[in-house]
Amino acid sequence: MLPVYRLELRVFDHCHPRLVLVHLHTPSWTLCLGCQKGCPSDSGDENVERGNWSSKREYMLSMIGYAVGLGNVWRFPYLAYKNGGGAFLIPYTIMLAVAGIPLFFVESSFGQFCSQGPINVWKAVPMLQGVGVAMMLVSTLVTIYYNVIIAYSLYYLFVSFQSHLPWSCSSGSWNCTSTPGGQLHETHRPFIYYRVTLARPELFCARVCDGSFAGRCNESVFGGSAALPVCNVTGTLKVPSEAYWDEVVLQRSAGMDETGPVLWHLALCLLLAWVLIGAALFKGIKSSGKVVYFTAIFPYVVLIILLVRGLTLEGALDGIEYYIGTKSDLSKLSEAGVWKDAATQIFFSLSIASGGVTALSSYNKFHNNCYKDSIVVCVTNCATSVFAGFAIFSILGHMAHVYQKPVSEVANAGFGLAFIAYPDALSQLPVAPLWSVLFFFMLLTLGLDSQFASIEVISTCLQDSFPTILKSGRGFVTASVCIVLFLLGLPCITRAGIYWVTLIDHFCSGWVLLVAGLLEFIGLFYIYGGNRFIEDIEMMIGTKSALFWLWWRICWFALTPLVLLVILAWSWYTFTPPTYGPVGYPSWALSLGWCMITFCLMWIPAVAVRRVLGARGNLWQRLKAACTATDDWGPYLDRHRGERYSRQRKRDTVELHADVFVIANNDICP
């Protein structure tokens, strides 16, 4: 047996005294000082160069905050209601087990194993490194419009700090009346009259009158101001919250061709959103890990408060009945569209295949149990979606009761729920500003958590790709990314901004992610090797039985790729051009949408061709070389590489550290 001597060295510089081991393996010998690469740092980081999460709690909160986003609040409840209520939970749970958790487990293991971001992890299969580039680009595009939504939330948050909500009839901004004779209109909603002078009053009148000039538009005068349009028709009218959203917040133009100027109230909110994100990420995960203690937990506090308040309102139980109660329709399970909606919601609500899971997990310590983490995060995400539905539909049920309408006519998703239906419902409550502040502050924190991870994807990819230039300038990288993305987001806060947001969301957050996710499975389990990848995971979490891996093998080799392929084919087959309400998009805008998809995906074949051309030999040898892992692929630290991933280095090097010459061989630390 080789002798091992234990020494205590005291180095009088910035390092603390440290206990080190000297191994006498060969005539050459190893001396490891506390600040050498691979040794634990004073901060407790296992990986000194890249850094690690300060604690397991920070990682879990960051991952939950990333997975739990706006879609959990404004999309899932509506999908559940639309697809059979409680019956929707059956395909939703099945898709979670078959598609969601398996892919999440793959990505978190992939990033943790090599401690690299979405691009550098593909040193495992260099030919598919373009998949990581596509993930980074789609995260960039999504981040641009997602922060605009945060800007909307900030604006609503600020205007809620007043005695009356500005979209309520009691605010004085609207003249809300009923039909002649004192009877409510057939829609059971009040008429609204805009109290500011409009540049094009006929447009406002047309929108209020259901988008047509079938009604008779008169002119009236309020308080001696300029003439304003009044619609006297029997069609559906806008409620104040919808008119406030269109005419005050967005100042929405008639279409994407009418861009208009930048809206400075939204520009300032967008700037503030980027300042908040930049400040939270200025020191990377070390600073964002502290922020998520609030941003990841606060939404749950608000949801509980909203649910408790909602259940005390008249009509709340009717809303819950529509959402997931006795009105559940099991016959919906026979419709293919229900299963497609369940799979799509699982895929996008977990934020997989966009690089965020890989980037965040790359800062874990090597032996972290990524398997348990994946289960906890995925189950928490889906449970949050279900729970949020109760909070949302309890208040929508009260809104339906006030308007004497079925819940189906007030339920909505996306912008319609977050900025029209729910604010309208909140305005009906006592102390309405308080509930509005809580709701929009919750949307703000939900959005910020997701943005933290998206920006981390971009920063991690840049620093991993250019380590010598950017590794020591984390704050500079974060600030630069935020400034550039703020400027790129300015078209989204013009009068046509909502059309840009909808366009990017429609094209970029769908197919690119599905293609990337499908190629992940092909690359890892059919090129790199599924058994090899399982052995890599066991290096981190310990050896497991064959029975343990049976379900994961079934999913990884067959079920999950098949589900992704079906969703991709279905999305292609059922594709319809995007619209915003009744407003369609011009042909040049649709072409731009396809160009965004092409720009993200083109790097996959481009990088593959470059790798093949850069290899040597005949075509088969080139393909084989392009699909073979690089020499530096594997665990980041030498002490974790073991015999499977031993690297060839110079056996003897001389390093100068802390005024002490250290002769080091291949093993840096025990």
Automatic annotation (TrEMBL):
One of its GO terms (biological process) is amino acid import across plasma membrane. PROSITE patterns: NA_NEUROTRAN_SYMP_1, NA_NEUROTRAN_SYMP_3. Keywords: Membrane, Metal-binding, Sodium, Symport, Transmembrane, Transmembrane helix, Transport. It comes from the Eukaryota. Na(+) binds at residues 65, 67-68, 72, 349, 381, 446, 449-450. GO terms for molecular function: (R)-carnitine transmembrane transporter activity; alanine transmembrane transporter activity; beta-alanine transmembrane transporter activity; branched-chain amino acid:sodium symporter activity; metal ion binding; neutral, basic amino acid:sodium:chloride symporter activity. Coiled coil: none annotated. It is a multi-pass membrane protein. The keyword Transport applies. It is found in: Membrane. The chain crosses the membrane at residues 59-77, 89-110, 131-158, 262-282, 291-311, 342-363, 375-396, 434-455, 476-498, 510-529, 550-573, 585-609. GO terms for cellular component: plasma membrane. InterPro entries: Na/ntran_symport, SNS_sf. Belongs to the sodium:neurotransmitter symporter (SNF) (TC 2.A.22) family. This is Transporter.
